[in-house]
Amino acid sequence: MQFSVSDLVQIILSGVAMGSIYALMALGFTIIYNALRLINFAQGDMFMLGATFGLTLFVMWRLPFSVAFLLAGLGVAVVGMIIERTVFRPLRRYPVLNLIIATIGISITLRALALIIWGSQALLFPPVFGDKPITVGKLVLMPHYLWIIGIAVVVIALLQAFFTLTLPGKAMRATAQNRDAAALMGINVFRMDSLASAISAGLGGFGGVLIAPVFFVTTEMGALAGLKGFAAAVLGGFGTIPGAIVGGLVLGVSESLAASVVSAYRDAVAFVILIAVLLWRPGGIMGRKTR
Question: What's the CATH number of domain 5-280, 2.40.30, 1.10.3470, 1.10.600, 1.20.144?
Answer without folding.
Answer: 1.10.3470
